[in-house]
Amino acid sequence: MSLFRHLLLGVFFAFAMTAFSAASFAADQPQSESGTVLETMNALNYTYMNVKTATGSKWVAIPATTVAVGDTVHFLDGMVMKDFNSQTLERTFASILFSPGLVADNATTDSPAAAAPESSPPSSFTDAVKAESQQTASPQPEGLVSAGSIGATAPYVEVEIEKASGGNGYTVAQIFDKAASLTGNTVRVRGKVVKVSPNIMGRNWIHIQDGTGDPLNNSHDLVVTSQDLPETDTVVVAEGVLAADKDFGYGYEYQAIIEEAAISQ
Predict the structure, then answer these.
(1) How many domains is the chain partitioned into structurally?
(2) Which candidate among 27, 42, 75, 197 keeps its CA 20 to 30 Å from the CA of 1?
(3) Same domain for 180 and 224
C-alpha cells in the first residue's frame, strides 16, 4: 500500500473516531416506548409481546419477564429484526424489536436485562454494536457507498490468500462485485479470520479477508454468520448462502454477507 494511501486512510480513521464518539454518546441516551400487551408468549429466556403502541402494534422481545395481556408496558428501544425466525416457537416474525427490557416496574423480571435470550440477546447485541463501532476500519468518503456495515467493518489486514476451489469459489472482492447476481446462491470463500463476534442473534459473526477488495469502500472485509466458531488469525473456507443488500436494522446493512455458513480449514 502506497504512502499516500496510508495517509488517506489515516485521515479517514480520524474522521471515523470523531463521528462514532458522537454516535456512542447519543446511543447512551436510552429511548423508550409504551403500549398495551395484546398477546404474549415465553420461549426459554425470552418473553415475546405483541404491543399496541401509538404508532400501531409491534412485536417486542425482552429478557424473560412476567407480563399479561392487557398490561401497559414501557420498554426500551433496541434493534429491529426483519423476518426473524424463532426455532423454539417455530414461528417467523415479519418484524420484531429486541429490547433490553422494561423501564417501569409494571412486571416481574425473572432474569436481569443482560440475561441471554432464546436466540438473540438484545443487551449483548447492543454492546456489540458499540464495541464494533469503536473498531471501524475506514469510513467511506462522501459520494461512496459502504460495501459492508460501516459499524462492523474490521480494519484492513495485508494478506494474500488463494481463492477457494470449485465452481462456486470466489475472492472477497468478487463476492462484493457480484453480490446482486449471486444472492441466494451457495458460495465458497477462503480467507483469514480477522475478527469474531460470538453468539449474537443466535449465531457467530466472522470477519474474513483475503487481501482483495478496497478498504476505501469497505469491500475488503466480508462478514460470515455461522454456528461454527473459528479462531482468529486462522485461514478458513466459508461456504454458505450469499445475501445481497441485507438490512438487519439498527444501522447494520450489508451489500454482501454469507449466512448459514459451514466453516472448514
Answers:
(1) 2
(2) 197
(3) yes
Decide if 101 is inside a domain.
yes
Query: Where are the extended beta strands (E) located within the chain?
Result: 32-43, 46-53, 56-63, 65-66, 72-76, 79-86, 91-98, 108-109, 169-170, 186-200, 203-209, 222-226, 235-247, 253-264
Under a CB-based contact definition with an 8 Å cutoff, are residues 207 and 258 in contact? no
pLDDT per residue over 73-120, tens digit each? 999 887 777 887 776 778 888 888 878 788 864 444 443 333 333 444
Boundary residue ending a domain (129, 158, 190): 129
On the 0-12 / 13-18 / 19+ scale of CB atoms within 10 A, 137 is: buried
Judge if pTM exceeds 0.70: no
Rounded to whole angstroms, the Cα distance separating 21 from 49 reads 33
Residue 62 counted as domain residue: yes
